[in-house]
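REVIEWER CHECKLIST
Item 1: Sequence provided? yes
Item 2: Single chain? yes
Item 3: Sequence as submitted:
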Amino acid sequence: MNFTRWSARLPGTQRRAAARDDHSSVPAARAESVRPKATAAPPDDTSETPAPAPAAGPALEALPARELLGLLPAPVALLHGPEHRITYVNAAYTSAFGPRPSGAPAAEAMPELAELSLLPLMDQVLRSGTPRTVKSRKVLAGSSYTVTCTPVATGAPEDPDGEAGVLVYATDVTDHAEAAERLRASERRHRETAVTLQRSLLPQDLEQPDDLRIAATYQPGGTDAAVGGDWYDVITLGAGRTALVIGDVMGRGVRAAAVMGQLRTAVRAYARLDLPPHEVLQLLDVLAAEIDASQIATCAYAVHDPNEGHLVYASAGHLPILVCNEDGTVHRAEDPTGPPLGTGGTGGTGGWVHTSGTIPLPPGSTAVLYTDGLVERRSEDIDEGVAALERALSGAKGTPQVVCDRLIRSLGVTAEHDDDVAVLVVQHPARTGTSAELFHNASLDLLGGIEAAPRARAFATGVLASWRFPVELCDLGVLAASELVANSLQHGTPPMRLGLRRTDRRLIIEVTDGDDHLPRRRRAEPADEAGRGISIVATIASSWGSRRTPGGGKAVWCEFALPA
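Item 4: Structure as written out by the authors:
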């Protein structure tokens, strides 16, 4: 094959040669236009001899293609015909892959092209006459190459229909490929660390209150999405009340997960104070600004009281709670919704004041708390996603975990989802038959003065006996009720009320009054005539506590675990 003649037919070769010829004529023309006309001068021994003009370099057409390709440091191969028979391989190609026999088909003599998946690509290049490039392909030997396949005409100028060929030019990018792989491995380790931290900060076993059935799901985003700060929690507050929490720290990675862990710990601490939901968020707002002013978080905090039949909630920029009734009707928790945590100002300097709202949660209903990863899509408004969740919830039946899984599937959340998702499903089961017999309530208004105490003891004795508790538990329950009533009569104000409640797992005794001063346990001296009531209750009961009620009073309660 005439490489000199073929080189002139490489794509772009003729244009570059013509451009060089044009540029080479410019200096001469310019020199003629500015050079002064020579005048006759007598010979002078001191005159200087003009310097000879530099010799012009060889034209591109004069350079043999074999020599050019042989000097290239990158592997080059020339193939021709539909079978891609070998016409030429340069020294770099031989050094990289070994010698290749001329005239042999590439499919038989060049296994490296098959490893790089180039054989179908070269067929496309021959058919289309368009160059194609593949990036960072690896051969079995371990090296990586970026390869360009360019169509060439190998026939003579007088034979334009000559057999076409493909010029294969490979660039070794092994170092770049290994660096990219190290970077990807580092990102994977970073993501795995964030996922591990995230999961370790979430509750490992959800608390299961007596009156509710709860399940939760957390799914991190796909491998291309960094882990965020979504979290959920269930906190038993005592006296049958339960706090439900869902939150989302904006941002990604370990930092967001760490902030989430701090906020979740703070929520659990504030919840133990048994404050109204809006007061919990008010405290959390101040803390979020102190933790990291650049991190913004949303949170919804709700409290369920089995005696009230609804959720009391407050929201800091979070998506609305959804409640599906037994008949499939879905209700959306409306205002109040405050700004996200960390943006409402710090305590004592003004800022947003959160408020609480209520949404019914009757027996047989299901409540769903969720983060934006479940309903937010780049191609649609988030309200459309919430509406889609409402439709999915209206038809979701089964246990809380089954409902969780169905909502995830219905909203199209997969392992490659671009955001992490947290879902908390809460069911208030409707009990009938023998199950309903295990749940009872009884209450007595404490009217009058000190004479209310014996009436309270008689009432507690009769109720506990009717509930068929063991004699020992009845005696302890009556003693606890007597001490709580006496404490309220001495330190509280009307209206006063004694409440008894049994579940399948515990007995709850609660006394409410109109004074908001919370009792505390203290050590009574031997000579003291008072101060022992709360200590007695704390000693005989499984747990006890107190909280302020929305009407301005307080509630003091204790619990007894029922025998198995």
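Item 5: Key structural point noted by reviewer: The two ends are 96 Å apart (CA to CA).
Item 6: Recommendation: ____
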